[in-house]
Design goal:
By secondary structure, the protein is an alpha/beta fold. It has helices at 8-17, 30-39, 57-63, 91-94, 97-104, 112-115; strands at 2-4, 23-27, 50-54, 71-73, 125-127, 130-132, 136-139, 151-154, 157-160, 165-168, 175-178, 180-184, 187-189, 195-197. The longest helix has 10 residues, at 8-17. Residues 114-119 have low confidence and may be disordered.
Length: 304
């Protein structure tokens, strides 16, 4: 059993009266801990079954790999809703989805082997990856007794070879799939939705970039890049600003004129919109007929 906050000695005393074998007590206030040790009539902190830790309850849960039959948030006494910017770790900090997600990671019903001492993958986003020719592109644990919560897998490009499986996720409760593209001779696996099977039209050598006409181009989340949630990041994995087109591209590589890479169909691409440096903003070389109008220089008149 573990218990947190200002009613800690009382809850610990009740647990000991019911013959609990071990109690971990956590309180963020060292003065409260000292008072409990000095003046609590049951002297619970002197009992060898009790371990007292001065720490924040959520921080303790994040750092320990112990498993508990019961976890008690023992009555924080403020009874006040505090804005997160106040940096006060009272009810507004303890009673959150993130905090109770950490509680789930330490229930005795979920074996230590299934967690390997790590937090459960709650509130995880897997997005904008390009995964090629792996044994399994996405794989999840098969021995967990608790499913994940609040996870999102979106706008990934997964391509596999014959005899491979793209997705092997035994537990899919709590996972939202959206906008993924699957391709290749590999089987889909047990992906439950949120994907299409289309040829992404990748280049065949070097960095596998999207080429003109790829269904992944301008097909990502329509939200403002970098605004959180399921939106794409503000840059791709090379640091190129997203989006180049109307929306982000699916996968790790933002493709298009202006990304600094000369793609098929482009004569040049220097990553800028300057038309006087030999490569025009439309990724054509400077010259007559490239579709970029240029001001003719004045014609000088004079005698020779």
């Amino acid at each position: 059993m573990t218990t947190y906050e200002h009613a800690v000695p009382q809850v610990a005393a009740a647990a000991l009266r019911h013959c609990v074998e071990r109690v971990d007590c956590v309180d963020i206030d060292p003065t409260i801990c000292w008072l409990g040790r000095q003046f609590h009539p049951d002297h619970v902190y002197d009992d060898p079954r009790v371990t007292l830790t001065v720490n924040d309850g959520r921080a303790f849960l994040r750092s320990t790999t112990e498993r508990y039959d019961l976890i008690v948030f023992a009555f924080p006494d403020s009874l006040t809703l505090v804005n997160a910017s106040g940096n006060l770790r009272l009810e507004s900090f303890l009673f959150t989805l993130q905090s109770f997600g950490s509680v789930r990671d330490h229930l005795a019903s979920d074996s230590a082997e299934s967690r390997r001492g790590n937090d459960a993958p709650d509130r995880v986003t897997i997005a904008l990856n390009t995964v090629l020719s792996c044994g399994t592109a996405l794989a999840g644990e098969s021995i967990r007794t608790l499913p994940p919560l609040g996870c999102s897998i979106s706008d990934n490009l997964l391509v596999g070879d014959s005899g491979k499986t793209l997705v092997s996720m035994p537990y899919q409760q709590g996972i939202t799939w959206a906008g993924n593209i699957l391709w290749g001779q590999a089987s889909n696996g047990n992906i439950s939705g949120g994907y299409s099977r289309k040829d992404p039209l990748l280049t065949t050598g070097g960095v596998r970039r999207l080429t003109s006409g790829s269904p992944a181009i301008n097909a990502g989340d329509p939200g403002v890049p970098g605004s959180g949630g399921s939106t794409c990041e503000a840059t791709d994995q090379r640091g190129v600003t997203r989006p180049i087109g109307t929306r982000c591209d699916i996968g790790a590589f933002e493709s298009g004129c202006g990304d600094g890479v000369t793609d098929p169909g482009e004569e040049c691409d220097d990553g800028n919109a300057i038309d006087s440096d030999g490569c025009q903003h439309n990724c054509t070389l400077s010259g007559c007929g490239n579709g970029v109008p240029r001001q003719r220089p004045p014609v000088g008149l004079g005698r020779h």
